[in-house]
Amino acid sequence: xxxxxxxxxxxxxxxxxxxxxxxxxxxxxxxxxxxxxxxxxxxxxxxxxxxxxxxxxxxxxxxxxxxxxxxxxxxxxxxxxxxxxxxxxxxxxxxxxxxxxxxxxxxxxxxxxxxxxxxxxxxxxxxxxxxxxxxxxxxxxxxxxxxxxxxxxxxxxxxxxxxxxxxxxxxxxxxxxxxxxxxxxxxxxxxxxxxxxxxxxxxxxxxxxxxxxxxxxxxxxxxxxxxxxxxxxxxxxxxxxxxxxxxxxxxxxxxxxxxxxxxxxxxxxxxxxxxxxxxxxxxxxxxxxxxxxxxxxxxxxxxxxxxxxxxxxxxxxxxxxxxxxxxxxxxxxxxxxxxxxxxxxxx
Length: 347
Prior knowledge:
The structure is a single chain. With 347 residues, the chain is an alpha/beta fold. The protein is built from 16 helices and ten strands. 52% of the residues lie in helices and 14% in strands.
């Protein structure tokens, strides 16, 4: 566990710099930041970044720093231009923290001598005046040997690396998903259907320990393409609507692959779809597809009823795949999906 301890914070003067200290802490591999002065606006700002861009980073303000630093059970580092050059001590610090937590003290104003005396290491990035934000970034980069820059986050918003321009894709929440449907003029039939699929998919997702953010968006938006067409192409139409709105590719794939238990490349060609596989691959894709299979209109129906409907249409291969998908998800959930349906019906 790596904690950054920010001291000397003055809310009305240092808000921007302390925010940057917090964001550098998160982006460069620390687990949390604690700040000496209580600052609820700072907490709100950092927590909003974590909510949108992902990770488990935490912030706490209003900490009595001397007590915290003195009693910290681990390696204590004080970043200061008066310390020993980071390159002369970083290997030793890495070794010492293999089995120990570490706290890194970063001052906003003149750091009291107590910090120097309590620290296990007084470390300088350069013995010259410069920004504490840069010092923290360089120290963490040296500590992780650059590997922190490869860390990925599963956030609501995801930055897509580009040579030119800017691209951010996002996972819409429940309210945003409903707004997207209404903006596309979804009728009440579509709305009631997707809300029922959402309830079932979320229940299955909880049992399966799946990503509920993806399931919520995918289940509510899976039939957005029906605002354009009610045929087999509604899934690809819906996927294109979402691509045009910069929706996260994981949600787009849920929508594009939700039909039945998936469509193979060969089947797609016969149906007049673009030539590629539309088989659900991820757990979230499979859950939304099967939840949709178990909902007719706005009513939950049993697997037997679903299979009977497919077999009556002589869609035997599709029925077989739906049964296999149902068995797979029941095994993952540790509970038959019919039982989960009954729970949803009783809500």
